[in-house]
Design a protein that fits this description.
Elements (H helix, E strand, L loop, with lengths): L2 H26 L4 H21 L9 H19 L3 E3 L2 E4 L5 H15 L21 H11 L4 H33 L7 H6 L14 H6 L5 H20 L9 H8 L2 H4 L1 H17 L6 H22 L10 E2 L9 H9 L2 H13 L6 H19 E2 L8 H18 L6 H22 L6 E5 H11 L8 E2 L7 H4 L9 H6 L5 H11 L5 H8 L3 E4 L1 H6 L13 E5 L2 E5 L1 H6 L1
Parallel strand pairs: 6-7
Antiparallel strand pairs: 1-2, 2-5, 3-4, 7-9, 8-9
Helix pairs in contact: 1-2, 1-5, 1-9, 3-6, 4-5, 5-6, 6-9, 6-17, 9-12, 10-13, 12-13, 12-16, 12-17, 15-16, 15-17, 16-17, 22-23
Length: 569
């Protein structure tokens, strides 16, 4: 079996198994071992059919490509073998960018695997909707149900996703596009010249190294990045009418495209616009059929998933006009500092491609969609946190990379090509080295505390919401229990108004005269009190101790049942 068939069939297996399990969980209210094995069987059948029908010509791997594959493998091994790991008595993650995100992912994986309600209420904010795309967490929950330990599942899923991403990047744009992904950056390397240290480079820029700050932390990209690149590769060949190019039957294209809302919303948005543009451009060339079929067949499953991840289309909108993106007072230097010569190259590419007889239709379609996406992201914010625009910028960046090479850089003398690549990638390469060196490692949890709290939580239902301190590293949250309020950074990024809930939680935990009514308004019947709660509310008299039974008590905290207290007054 060729590498292309392995890549496509593996992605189809993950997509079909995840979406099938999600559908069965919606019908049954939760994930079960029976529905998990049915979903895996459906995925295997779809993968087998894809392996029989996908095809691509064999292409030579150059020395430069091989070097980049080795660099990609080393970076992935360092990032993902230590994505979460025990270190003595602690549970740690390698990257500081992954601390809050990893706690969120662990909560969802444990919650889904433990039989929590699906589609869930927001597990991080009482009474709120859940506008999130947890596709990879569902996949890891399925692995845990099937018997794969959680941390092993996280590591191997990430490593296989990285292998798929490397293969898909190479198929889409060869070594140049792999380098663009690994070494994204502007002139941030100048910070090293000033300070002599690699640490802190990513703090000095907004367009950060994409491998470290997106691929390692945004788990949905483990599927959506290789799947999206495979689709883009196939659509490029279809639009050109290249019968000898990489091909994938329409059912397999639907299997890759339709589930993307469950994994990564920006990927679905970009791919949808690109699919529509390809359909329009293929109208006169007689190549409309596969694009139209893929779009029409995907409407129902994709719409259902969009409905799911937007809580019935009720997710708060954050789109707003914000020209200059995160420029602030930076002016022109902001763009050079973050993007270096990338944007001037994009402008030169646009002039070359869109001049009369400058390029073929396919190049114009892909470059046009990508450049329009860049312009949109620099004029409008798509999320409460403007930095989240990078999740859409990534797709425009990668879509443009092969065409920057083919229409501009590849035509220049060798020494100019070398200098251009140095200016494009030096900063990102230094950031990658600094982000993966041996000095890193950040505590997520105390393993003994996790074990104690896990034992305590066995006494309450999996769907019971728990009043705790709002902290991303709270052991109850990490272990999958829904909490009254989690980390405010997560809630802000989802566009949720957590202020009223934060006030009610404070009234309860501070033990003021209205604490019972606060608990009633929150609808919470279980309360955890440990070191984080003591630190946040040191003056609390803890009045519930006089009326609430203690369900569990350890040196790491106590678990109370508030129901008798709420019935008393």
């Amino acid at each position: 079996m060729t590498g292309w068939r392995i890549l496509c069939s593996g992605l189809v297996f993950v997509a079909v198994a995840t979406i099938a399990a999600s559908g069965l969980a919606v019908l049954g209210g939760k994930f079960t071992p029976q529905s998990t094995w049915i979903a895996f069987a459906a995925g295997l059948i779809a993968a087998w059919a894809t392996a029989r029908t996908a095809s691509a010509p064999r292409q030579r791997i150059t020395l430069a490509d091989a070097i980049l594959f080795v660099v990609f493998a080393l970076a992935a091994a360092r990032a993902f073998l230590w994505v979460i790991y025990p270190d003595g008595g602690n549970l740690e993650v390698l990257s500081p960018h992954n601390l809050g995100d990893m706690a969120l992912h662990l909560n969802l994986i444990h919650r889904f695997a433990n039989g929590g309600n699906f589609w869930p209420e927001n597990p991080f904010l009482a009474g709120a909707i859940f506008p999130y795309h947890p596709g990879m967490d569902i996949w890891n929950a399925l692995l845990r149900i099937a018997g794969v330990p959680v941390y092993e599942g996280l590591r191997w899923t990430a490593l296989l996703g990285a292998a798929a991403a490397a293969a898909a990047l190479w198929r889409w744009g060869r070594g140049f596009t792999m380098a663009a992904f690994l070494f994204a950056g502007g002139f941030g390397a100048l910070t090293v010249l000033q300070s002599g240290a690699l640490d802190g480079m990513l703090d000095q820029v907004e367009w950060k190294n994409t491998f470290l700050t997106m691929f390692v932390t945004q788990r949905g990209l483990l599927y959506s990045l290789p799947a999206g690149l495979v689709l883009m590769t196939v659509w490029r060949a279809q639009l050109r009418g290249d019968a000898q190019g990489p091909s994938l039957p329409v059912p397999a294209q639907v299997a890759l495209y339709a589930p993307t809302p469950l994994f990564n919303a920006p990927a679905f948005l970009f791919l949808s616009i690109l699919l529509a543009a390809c359909a329009v451009a293929s109208w006169r060339g007689g190549r409309l059929r596969p694009f139209l079929a893929t779009g029409l067949i995907s409407i129902i499953p994709a719409s259902w998933l969009v409905h799911l991840v937007t809580a019935g289309f009720t997710a708060p909108g954050a789109l707003r006009f914000e020209p200059g993106w995160m420029q602030g007072e930076g002016g022109l230097w902001f763009w050079l500092w973050n993007f270096g010569i990338f944007l001037p190259l994009v402008a030169a590419c646009a002039v070359t491609v869109f001049r009369p007889r400058g390029a073929d239709t396919t190049t114009r379609v892909f470059c046009g969609v990508a450049i329009a996406t860049l312009v949109f992201c620099f004029l409008f914010a798509i999320a409460p946190w403007a930095w989240d625009n990078t999740k859409l910028l990534l797709w425009a960046y990668l879509a443009l990379a092969p065409f920057l090479w083919s229409t501009l850089i590849a035509r220049w003398p060798v020494w100019v090509r070398a200098g251009t690549c140095l200016l494009l990638f030096a900063s990102g390469a230094l950031a990658l080295i600094g982000g993966l060196d041996s000095r890193h490692g950040y505590q997520l949890a105390d393993r003994s505390e996790l074990a104690a709290v896990q034992f305590m939580l066995r006494t309450i239902p999996v769907n019971a919401r728990l009043a705790t301190a709002p902290s991303y590293e709270h052991p109850a949250l990490i272990l999958g229990q829904p909490v009254v309020m989690g980390h405010d950074g997560h809630l802000f990024s989802q566009g949720l108004d957590y202020g009223p809930t934060q006030g009610e939680l404070g009234a309860l935990m501070a033990g003021g005269p209205d604490w019972r009514n606060a608990a009633r308004r929150l609808g919470v019947h279980y309360l955890f009190w440990g070191k984080r709660e003591t630190e946040r509310w040191p003056a609390s008299p803890q009045p519930w101790r006089e009326c609430a039974p203690v369900l569990a008590d350890t040196p790491h905290g106590a678990l109370y049942l508030l129901t008798p207290c709420l019935l008393g007054e």
